[in-house]
Amino acid sequence: MPSGSVQILATKLQPPRTRPSSLERSRLSAGAARVLDVPLTLVSAPAGFGKTTLLVEWYEWLGHRATVGWVSLDEFDSDPQTFGRYLQEALCHAFGDVPGVGDQLTLEALVAHISNRSLAEGSPVVLILDDYHLIESSRIDAAVQFLLERMPSDMHVVLGSRRNPNVPLARLRARGRLFEVAADDLRFTVEETRGLFNDLEQLNLTAEQLATLESRTEGWAAALQLAALSVKGKDNPDRFIRTFSGSQRFVFDYLAEEVFGAQDEQTQAFLVQTSVLDRMTGPLCDAVTLTPSGGARLTALNRASLFTVALDDADGWFRYHHLFRDFLRGMLAEREPENIASLNRRASEWFVSDGLLEEAVPYAVASGDQGWAFTIIERVLPAATLRGDIFTPVFDRWMEAVSHQEVERRPWAALPLAFARALAGRVTEAADLAQCVEDVLEERTPAAVELTDTEKVHYGGVLNLVRAYIARFRGDPEAALALVDHSATLLPQADSTQPWLRMFRQLVLHDAWAPNRESELRDAATNCFEKGHPAAANALLVLEFYRLALSGHLNAASDHLEASLKRAYERNALPSAGMLHGVAAELFYQRGELDEAEEEAQRCISLGAPGASAGLFFPPEASLVLIQNADGRREEALASLHLLEGRIKGVETVQGQLFFPALVAHLHFLLGLPAIAERWAESSTLSPETQPTFALEYPCLVYARVLVVSGRAKEAIPLLRRVADAAYAAGRHGRTLEAQVIEACALWREGDERSALIAFGRLLPLAERERYVRVILDEGEPALSLLRKSASAGAHAPYALRLLLAAGGNIDERRPRLATRPDDLSARELEVLRLLALGSFNREIADELVISLDTVKSHLRSVYAKLDVHSRGQAVRSARERGLV
Question: Which of 38, 614, 679, 736 is the most exposed place for a label (fewest CB within 10 A)?
């Protein structure tokens, strides 16, 4: 290695400068200490994930504890002579000198000497090689492997790379001699996204906007930084955030220059053409691109960390990072617009040939060949209907993408769509589709495909069922029952629609509140499961939950719900199991278990539970408002309320028109916005003289609350007693309890303390027995005052005290010791608290720590007690104030 043969750039021997102010990501910064525990640390992720930024942070931390050398590699360093010289200079820079190293040493000799020099140093030595993916030399790979095998225990190598290097990672991993930081570790969490945009950049984005950015970027640091740069210049940041994608100019330029432009022509063509796919495997790519070796190319892309994500352990299926996919689709539209239809057609044909019909549908729709799309949808629809998939946004997108005239001429497509529209509260659309089906069956409109007599009878029965739904949603239960009964006479017992008939009959009877029908509901649900109708079965299980809850049997409702969820998952009854998670959120909330309630509400939303938007079931967004408000997260609660109002907009059902306005008014009331609730009360048809039917009970309770806080408690009390009496007579003791709580608070506000305490004392036995929490606490200060009085004396003092503590009541002699130092919490409790602060739910914490869900809950109870808090949000805020996380 003759002197002067390589020109040394001094800037490559120092880490690049970071911004004067940058976001602290303590969970990643802490990894610097791990570097000193293993021979090799690998930080591997695609471009723009913050690898170099993290390595610079580690360099600065390690510099106070070890001798550290740094090399920023580039493509010219693949020459062994050049690489060796930079390696030598990096160690010279770190040690001050490298005695005994002559100019004529080979790379291998130099590596051996570095190992010996490190042994003589007597303190830790760290060599950081950034951008190692640019090295394309088997000789250099071998030299690094040699160094890893021979270096002393106090020497450590750190590689930053966009792909895994050609060193024996598997062997090092198996021996515990490798520390890895991958793309998933580097992704920004929601909390870190908030820190970047609001704390560092001072952009004051809402929780909803931050969640959108985190979701669209998948935590990709470069995209978030580019988004922050873009948002600063926008008058309407919300619009920019909602449309932010890989086609944005800054992201597009970055991807074009740093990623796409670095590939050869064949790889570029492969990337562009396969961008139509949401997920990929080798044979599928071969079919779409009409070229071989798709599997090998995907494997190579994944190894190169080229924005691909492996979807299974065998690395057979992949997808592109969402932003990269958006970018590639933009390139496809620019380069090969004429091929988009044929690429999608070939994809759909491959999925059909592989028996994956449902995955074929979106590609068939995108191909623009509606006849082909309908051919596949026709084969998919029966199973999708049984599972309840017709109520999901996916089905909506399928049907919106094809011609409405074609749908209307196909009863097998129009009838499920009519069901979906009815359950979404779009009753007029459902009625129009029903009329189109009748026109086809009566031959006033030609069918797209000729129908047999048997098919006409079947579709006629289903049509009556659709019209029964419409009649029910228009407030005519008698007509609904008549239509259901007529359908039953038209359809033979073997017809696949019979379980739907049983389910809907129970639904209409629920509206009329026929008492003591739990066993009938269970029998109908069992029949639906046995007949292969899990969506109908889950709807019946939800009805049973509501009957138990309204009857005041919260303990029985809890047992029923646990068994129902187990049964639904055993039968793979998704997405309709989301309905059960939705009512689980209500149950946990009523019990004051806010963490579990939020987890269940989010799961309901993620599964796309059908029916909630039509007033059938309590919407999960409403549960989130209640949970977040009770947890002191008012801004998030307001954002969830905004989502709820958007979801229920345009609902035409009578149930929705009665229930939803009252619900929205109640939520505004709880959020401290009584003026909005008062406007609802003034515009409603309710009055203090209203006679409460079953459908009017909840609106009457909300109306009574408004009367109480507006100084008209005397008018509210008779109305509340009528609600309580009617509900009690029908066996709805849960609704009676709610009315009695409001009445006791009204009496307290009127200054009649004695009557208030008597009324409150009457309701406490049921509330304590069934473990109610929020039905009392949500009434605010009057309820707390009554609890304080009850806590000082009486048979229910322990229960009253528990509720006061759950509300953060100040009972000094009962307060647990506050945790002020990390020493006050066990190591495992601190781990749980750290994951809690990262936004993990209980199940995710259990998976991360390899412990049971019950153990997680036990740790959380201990953490809450030591921090003197009662929920996840309070715990995280308190821990941050005390410096525990």
Answer: 679
Pairwise pLDDT comparison (57 vs 400), residue with the higher score:
57
Give dist(CA 354, CA 363) in Å, integer: 14
Average pLDDT, integer, range 53-82: 86
How far apart are alpha carbons 246 and 326 in whole angstroms?
5
Residue 71, SS3?
strand
Nearest to 12 by CA among 65, 63, 83: 83
Are residues 713 and 735 in contact, defined by beta-carbon separation less than 8 angstroms?
Answer: no
Tell me the C-alpha distance between 339 and 345, whole Å.
10
Facing residues of 44 across strands? 161, 182
Query: Within 10 A of 393 (CB to CB), how many other CB atoms are there?
Result: 9
DSSP output for 779-808:
T-HHHHHHHHHHHHSSTTHHHHHHHHHHTT
| SS3 category, 309 | strand
The CB density around residue 547, as the number of other CB atoms within 10 Å, is 23
Question: In angstroms, rounded to a whole number, what is the distance separating the alpha carbons of residues 513 and 521?
Answer: 13
- DSSP, res 134: G
Distance CA 147, CA 334 (A): 48
Two tokens, residue 480: 């609904």
Q: Please report, as a single letter, which amino acid is at residue 299.
A: T
CB-based contacts of 562, cutoff 8 Å, min separation 6: none
For residue 575, is the peptide bond before it cis, meaning its omega torsion is within 30 degrees of 0?
yes
Nearest to 767 by CA among 793, 750, 744: 744
**Between the CA of residue 214 and those of 206, 218, 680, 864, what are the distances in Å?**
12, 6, 36, 29
Q: Tell how strand 67-72 and strand 308-310 pair up.
A: unpaired
pLDDT bracket for residue 97 (50, 70, 90): low
**How far is residue 574's CA from residue 38's CA, in Å, rounded to a whole number?**
45
DSSP summary character for residue 49: S
Q: How far apart are CA 418 and CA 391, in angstroms?
A: 10
- Cβ proximity of 58 and 186 under 8 Å: no
Q: Cα–Cα distance between 859 and 826 in angstroms, integer?
A: 9
Report pLDDT for 2: 35
| Nearest residue to 272 via CA among 257, 288, 284 | 288
Written as six digits, the tokens of 482 are: 């008549």
- For residue 215, what are the contacts with CB-CB under 8 A and spacing of at least 6? none
- Please report which helix (H) or strand (E) contains residue 484, including its range: helix 477-490
Q: Is the pLDDT of residue 42 over 90?
A: yes
871 CB-contact burial (10 Å; exposed 0-12 / middle 13-18 / buried 19+): buried
Q: What is the C-alpha to C-alpha distance for residues 809 and 789, in angstroms, rounded to an integer?
A: 13
Contact 162, 44 (CB under 8 A): yes
Pairing of strands 178-182, 40-44: parallel
Q: Strand 40-44: give its sheet, edge to edge.
A: 67-72, 125-130, 155-161, 40-44, 178-182
Measured CA to CA, the distance from residue 629 to residue 613 in angstroms comes to 22
Residues sharing a CB contact under 8 Å with residue 649, sequence separation 6 or more, in sequence order: none
Please, what is the end-to-end C-alpha distance for the chain in angstroms?
51
Contact indicator for 298, 307 with CB cutoff of 8 Å: no
Nearest to 261 by CA among 456, 6, 47, 517: 47
Kindly indicate the confidence band of residue 104, based on its pLDDT and cuts at 50, 70 and 90.
very low
Looking at mean pLDDT, say which of 172-186, 469-483, 517-531, 807-821 comes out highest.
172-186
Q: 3-state class of 793 per DSSP? A: coil
Q: Which residue carries 């071989």 as its tokens? A: 292
With CA atoms as reference, report the closest residue to 197 among 229, 220, 244: 229
Q: Measuring CA to CA, which residue among 651, 667, 579 is closest to residue 615?
A: 651
d(CA 838, CA 85): 43
What is the identity of the amino acid at 802?
R
Which residue did the predictor score with more confidence, 610 or 858?
858
Instruction: Map tokens 């109870």 to a residue.
Output: 861
Q: Which amino acid does the sequence have at 348? A: S
pTM greater than the 0.85 cutoff: no
Among the listed residues 35, 16, 44, 250, the one whose alpha carbon sits nearest the alpha carbon of residue 156: 35
